[in-house]
Amino acid sequence: MHHRYDVLVVGAGGAGLMAALYAAKGNVSVACISKLYPTRSHTGAAQGGIGAALGNVAEDHWEWHMFDTVKGGDYLTDQDAAEIFSKDIIEAVYELEHMGLPFSRTPEGKIAQRKFGGHTREFGKAAVERSCYAQDRTGHMILQTLYQQNVKAGTTFYNEFHVTDLIIENGRCCGVVAYHLASGEIHTFHAKAVILAAGGYGRVYKITSNALTLTGDLMSIYYRKGLPLEDMEFYQFHPTGLAKLGILVTEGIRGEGGILRNADGERFMERYAPTIKDLAPRDIVSRSIITEIREGRGVGRDKDAVHIDLTHLPREVIEGKLAEITDLARTYLGQDPVKDLVAVQPTAHYAMGGIPTDINGLCFADGNGTNVEGLYAAGEQACVSLHGANRLGTNSLGDLIVFGRRAGIFAAEYARQAAYPEMPENPERDSVEMLSRLKNASGKDNSAVIRKELQESMMNNVGIFRNGPDMEKQVEIIKELKDRYKNVGVSDPSIRYNSELIEAMELGFMLDCAEAATASALNRQESRGAHDREDYPERDDQNWLKHTMAYKDLNQNDHVLIGYKEVALKGYTRAFEPKPRVY
C-alpha cells in the first residue's frame, strides 16, 4: 500500500508527538508511524521531571541551567544547542501547562520544582530546585497531553507499523517503508519531509530501564546507508534501577531526600561527591556504586546492589510525590520504601549519541555539515549534542519538547515550499528481501539466544567501566554474532502479529548499534562523562575534544570507519584541562 503526506514522523513518544503537533500547526498534512499505541511509548517511563529555570521555588536563571548542562556533558556538549535549550525550555514548560499537563503545584499554585542531580545555582555553588514534575509520572502525563493535542490537530496515526527502510535518493529523503504488524503487509510512505523520533537502543544491554521496543531501529537503518552515528560511545547508566530488573528508580527519589547506603549502612556518596553527595551527576553516582560493589560493600544475595533509604521521609512524601516507584518496589521486590531499604543497581538508561543533527533537527550526512535534504531527527534517536558525554537528569524530557518542537516547525516550513521528491522504482525491494530471508532461513541459531549473548557481553565489556582488551574482545564477539545472525530463521509462519519475526528483525538493528558503539568506545582513548576507560583514566581535551562519527564500511561489512566533528564552543572553556578520574 502507498501513502503520501507532507510531513511524516516516525515514533510517537514525546519527541515524535511534539514534532507532529508543531508540524500540524504549520498547515501541512502530517502522519505519525509508531511501533506502539502512542500513549504506550517509552517516554511514559520517565518519572523525575523536566528541568527548567522557572525560579518558582528558588532563584534560578537559564545561564545556570546552560552551565550545568555543559558541565554535566563533560564539555563535549555543543554549547549553541545548550543555550537554545536552556532558554526555550522555559517557554515550552509553560506551553505544556497551557495544554493541560497536570503539573504538581506549590501552595501558591505555581508549577512545583524540586532538586535533581547536577542542577545548581550560581554555576555550581549549591543544589537548586529546577525540576518541574507531575508526581513521579511526568513522562506519562506528557504523552497523554501531547497525544490529545495531536488528535485535536488532525494528525493521522499508523500504530503497530515497524519501519524497515528509509528511502534516500540523491541526498534527499523521500519517505519510509514499514511492515504492518496486524496484516503482515508492506506499506510505502511518500513524504516531502521525514522526522525520525523512534527512541534509543538500550536493549543491547542486559540490565536496562528501556522498554522492549527500544532496539535502535532507525539508528541502524541510517547507519546501513553509510551515514554516520555520532558519539555512540557515550551511554548513560542511571545509578538507580530496581535490583536485577533495571526498572527505573527516579532521581527524584534522591531529590526528595533519599540516601544511598552500602552494606555497612554508610552514606558513601559523602566520600565521592562531598558537596552535593547523592545529587551528583549520574555518571559519578553510577561509578561510585560500582566501586562500592567491587570493594565488597554491596548488598543482596549476589552483593551486586546498594540500598536507597527513604525511611526518614514522611509517609505522605513517599506515597504522594513518589507513588509510582513506591508501588513498583512493593510489587517487584517486596520492599516497602516507607519502612524498608530498597535494593538498587545501575541500569543502562540513555543514549547520548545517535543520528547527528543541527539545532533545527536537520540530519547530517558527515562531520563537515553536509545535510540529508528533507530528513530531520529529534529526541533520544538524535544527537544535536545537547547532552555531550553525559546527560544531565531531566534534560531528556526537555530535549524531547524543545528539539521535537523545532524539528516539527522547520520540517513543516521546508515541506510548504518543497515538491514531492521522485520515489525510486520498487522502494519496497530491500525490505521484502530482508523479511523473506528471516522467514525462510534454515539455520539452527535462535534470535533469542544471540540477543542474550549480545546483552550479557555488552554489559560486561562496554559497560560502566571499560578497557581496551575487553572492548577488543567485544568487537570480535559482535562479528561472530553477526555471522550467526545471517542464519537465524523464524519458525512461526504467521502473517499477522508475527512477534518472532519482529524480534528477529530488531536483533539485526541491535547488532548494528552495538557494533558502532563498541568501535567508537574502543577508538576514544580517554575518560569523559559516561565513557570511563580504566586504561586511559584522564580526560584529554587536547586530542579528544571532538565528536566521534561512526560509519559502516559498505565495502567491508564487519568494519567501522571513524571520523570526527568539531564541538560547538560558546564561552564555557574554564574546565579544558586534563583531570584525573579517581572513584
Automatic annotation (TrEMBL):
One of its GO terms (cellular component) is plasma membrane. The keyword Transport applies. Keywords: Electron transport, FAD, Flavoprotein, Membrane, Oxidoreductase, Transport, Tricarboxylic acid cycle. InterPro entries: FAD-dep_OxRdtase_2_FAD-bd, FAD/NAD-bd_sf, FRD_SDH_FAD_BS, Fum_R/Succ_DH_flav-like_C_sf, Fum_Rdtase/Succ_DH_flav-like_C, SdhA/FrdA/AprA, Succ_DH/fumarate_Rdtase_cat_sf, Succ_DH_flav_su_fwd. The modification Tele-8alpha-FAD histidine is found at H42. It is a peripheral membrane protein. GO terms for biological process: anaerobic respiration; electron transport chain; tricarboxylic acid cycle. It is found in: Membrane. The keyword Nucleotide-binding does not apply. Substrate binds at H238, T250, H349, R391. Belongs to the FAD-dependent oxidoreductase 2 family. FRD/SDH subfamily. This is Succinate dehydrogenase flavoprotein subunit.
